[in-house]
């Protein structure tokens, strides 16, 4: 009984922190956004959060889009990594495909931008490849 309640409390605490990190992706400060991206990267890499993310995938996708468009260097690289992990969490169903298709052209844009940092371009290439492998329904 108390063990289940404790586990429930821990899960709510994790979700609250994730919501806070997602909110921080909208911050004006690049340092705050990068810290939020690092925290999300760690969370998505270490725990299955499919249910939590399912409800918030559009919000997170919009935030990642802004980080990729307006961010520079490290922020773009982190956003690409978080996007890859989001695709992994969403899987090969319609949700994963939706996330991939909404950011595919932006990933290609950063990848082909010769002024973007090498780490951002590499991260976007990895995101494009992984998300395409996981979530692209059409063979092209």
What do these coordinates show?
The protein has 140 residues and is an all-alpha fold. The protein is 83% helix and 0% strand. It contains six helices and no strands. It is globular, with a radius of gyration of 15 Å. The chain starts with a helix and ends in a 5-residue tail after the last helix.
Set out the fold topology.
Blueprint lengths: L1 H23 L5 H17 L3 H21 L2 H18 L3 H19 L5 H18 L5
Helix pairs in contact: 1-2, 2-4, 3-4, 3-5, 4-5, 4-6, 5-6
Protein name: IFRD2 regulator
Family: Belongs to the IFRD family.
Organism: Poecile atricapillus (Black-capped chickadee)
Task: Provide a brief overview of the structure.
By secondary structure, the protein is an all-alpha fold.
| The CATH topology | Leucine-rich Repeat Variant
Order of helices and strands: HHHHHH
- How many structurally independent domains? 1
Number of helical stretches of at least 4 residues: 6
Terminal CA distance reads 52 Å
What is the average of the pLDDT values?
90
The total of beta strands comes to 0
CATH superfamily: Leucine-rich Repeat Variant
Largest sheet: none
Per CATH, the class reads Mainly Alpha
CATH architectural grouping = Alpha Horseshoe
What would the principal axes of the Cα set say about the shape? globular
| C-alpha-based Rg, rounded | 15 Å
Based on secondary structure, the structural category is mainly alpha
Instruction: Provide the helix percentage.
Output: over 70%
Q: Low-confidence segments, ≥5 residues, pLDDT <50?
A: none
DSSP strand content? under 5%
């Amino acid at each position: 009984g108390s063990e289940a309640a404790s586990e429930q409390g821990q899960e709510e605490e994790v979700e609250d922190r994730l919501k806070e990190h997602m909110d921080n992706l909208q911050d004006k400060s690049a340092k705050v956004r990068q810290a939020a991206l690092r925290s999300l990267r760690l969370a998505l890499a270490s725990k299955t959060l499919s249910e939590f993310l399912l409800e918030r995938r559009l919000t997170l996708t919009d935030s990642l889009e802004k980080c990729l468009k307006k961010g520079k260097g490290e922020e773009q690289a982190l956003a690409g990594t978080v996007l890859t992990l989001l695709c992994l969490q969403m899987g090969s169903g319609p949700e994963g495909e939706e996330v991939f298709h909404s950011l595919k052209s932006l990933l290609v844009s950063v990848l082909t931008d010769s002024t973007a940092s090498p780490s951002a371009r590499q991260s976007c290439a990895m995101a494009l490849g992984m998300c395409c492998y996981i979530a692209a329904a059409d063979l092209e």
